[in-house]
Amino acid sequence: LWAGIAMTTISAMLSAYTGVQLGDNWMIMQERWPKYKLSCRKPYPEMGFRVFGNSGRIFVTTLITIQQFGFSVVLLLLAADNISSFLFAFWQVKINFCFIAMLVALFITPFLMLGSAKDFWQAAFVAMCSTIVAVTLMIIGISHDRDVCSREVDFPPVVFSQFFLAYGTIMFAYGGHSAFLSFQHDMHTPREFAKSSVSAHAFILMLYLPISIFGYLVYGGSQRGTIISSLQLTWVQQTVNVLI
């Protein structure tokens, strides 16, 4: 338990710190090369270019593309799986998982044509609200299951081989760095990005820790993949799936 809390907290601190460093670095670049103050759709490749030349730009672009592709695939599969579970839980409707993934991809494609984060800031606000509601419902669901599940809960020993799997999952939860500089560029006061990075990660940590702690104490080693799938109230489980 304590190892998980430490990993989650330290990862949040490191993620916030690197976000601050990226923001400071971008401000330095804007001071040295004023053209970046106007418009820059690809800030990370430009950083690579200023350090290593054109080869640095290509290298950074390749890394960002691979990272974004992997991140998008995970989210696409997660959304398709949640929709599939939702349809079956309430209406016993079975639709091919691959077909749902294709529909989700087609639905979100038009939004990818938007210029930058400022063009669809409403999506970020809706996502924040849905996450808060989802966390609240999960706490309600865990509290409902506590009396029954905690009677026979078991806590498996910590295995070092699981460390990297856990660490990868935790860092995935903080994986927003590829968009940080775009957010900063769209801010009215870009120099205040450090405050945004720290406060955002602190807020995220406040959401993650209660779920992690309560879920572990109630379900222990009996968790079925994720805490969401361990929730016994069907309507809570499926509502959280949709919100996530």
Automatic annotation (TrEMBL):
Record-annotated Amino acid transporter transmembrane domain positions: 1-244
This protein's UniProt keywords: Membrane, Signal, Transmembrane, Transmembrane helix, Transport
Residue ranges crossing the lipid bilayer per the database entry: 58-79, 86-108, 120-142, 163-180, 200-219
One Pfam family it belongs to: Aa_trans
InterPro entries: AA_transpt_TM (IPR013057)
UniProt keyword Cytoplasm, yes or no: no
Any GO CC annotation of this UniProt entry: membrane
Domain of life: Eukaryota
Localisation: Membrane
PANTHER family listed in its UniProt record: OS05G0424000 PROTEIN-RELATED
Protein name: Amino acid transporter transmembrane domain-containing protein
Organism: Pristionchus entomophagus
Taxon lineage: Eukaryota, Metazoa, Ecdysozoa, Nematoda, Chromadorea
